[in-house]
């Protein structure tokens, strides 16, 4: 757990989570790309329109699963408190529904493609 949440009650963690910088499910649209750099790996997640992501890098690259369609369970500070609508936030660990848990997230980038009709 990070120093910011160590020893906090579940209610206090929920309050801290509301003000955290990070990417939430409602921030994303189909086609968006989320790039996540953890302590040990870099992941790229392409957003699909059905609540899934095409995952590459990190564990998926090491286990021949790049491009695998996955769901995100949420983010955790390393314990059992899971923020289910949080896709990625610095200081937290990302948990996929296939039970893959990343090391702590160091950086998150959200890239939204620019439609061709608006490029001049």
Give a short synopsis of this structure:
This protein is mainly β and 120 residues long. It contains 2 helices and 10 strands, in the order H-E-E-E-E-H-E-E-E-E-E-E.
Describe this structure as you would to a colleague.
There is one protein chain. With 120 residues, this protein is mostly beta strands. It has one domain (10-106). Helices cover 12% and strands 36% of the residues. The chain contains two helices and ten strands; from the N terminus they run H-E-E-E-E-H-E-E-E-E-E-E. The strands form three sheets. Strands 5-4-3-2-10 form a five-stranded antiparallel sheet. A hairpin with a 5-residue loop joins strand 6 (72-76) and strand 7. The longest helix is centred in the first third of the chain and has 9 residues, at 10-18. The chain is globular and about 50 Å long. The model has no long low-confidence stretch (mean pLDDT 85).
Mean pLDDT: 85
What Rg is obtained from the alpha carbons, in whole angstroms? 15 Å
SSE series = HEEEEHEEEEEE
Return the structural class: mainly beta
Proportion of residues in extended strands: 35-45%
From the structure above, extract its key features.
120 residues, mainly beta, five-stranded antiparallel β-sheet, three-stranded antiparallel β-sheet, 2 helices, 12% helix
